[in-house]
């Protein structure tokens, strides 16, 4: 997106929404492969990446932390979860009930992120008036 301090939060929220979208695709793929022998569930790591990017300095303001994030380095990372573990004898480690709960959770998270992005643009519009 645009590289200015006015869009710092929007850029981070945009990356978080992208990660949530990727997680939705991974979970949907897990559900589709719930009966595939040997399939290992996939997930997307983003929250830990964001936490590292924000840093652990509790005396620094959130505005300062967000403005110091290098957006290009903040990438959602897909990974295979619990490769040595399986629920069934065929090697599959997808628990369909757990995946459905995670899908619902992720959809709520995505909707919340989109609402936050919209609110940030509303705030910018109010400032420009």
Q: Secondary-structure map with pairings?
A:
Elements: H1 8-32, E1 42-45, H2 47-54, H3 62-67, E2 77-80, H4 96-128
Antiparallel strand pairs: 1-2
Helix pairs in contact: 1-4
The number of helices is: 4
Unreliable stretches (pLDDT < 50, length at least 5) are none
Our measurement of the CA-to-CA distance between the termini, rounded to an integer number of angstroms, reads 22 Å
Q: What is the approximate shape?
A: elongated
SSE pattern: HEHHEH
Description:
The chain is built from four helices and two strands; from the N terminus they run αβααβα. With 129 residues, it is mostly helical. It has one domain (5-128). It has a two-stranded antiparallel ribbon. The mean pLDDT is 88.
Supply the key terms.
two-stranded antiparallel ribbon, 56% helix, 129 residues, 4 helices
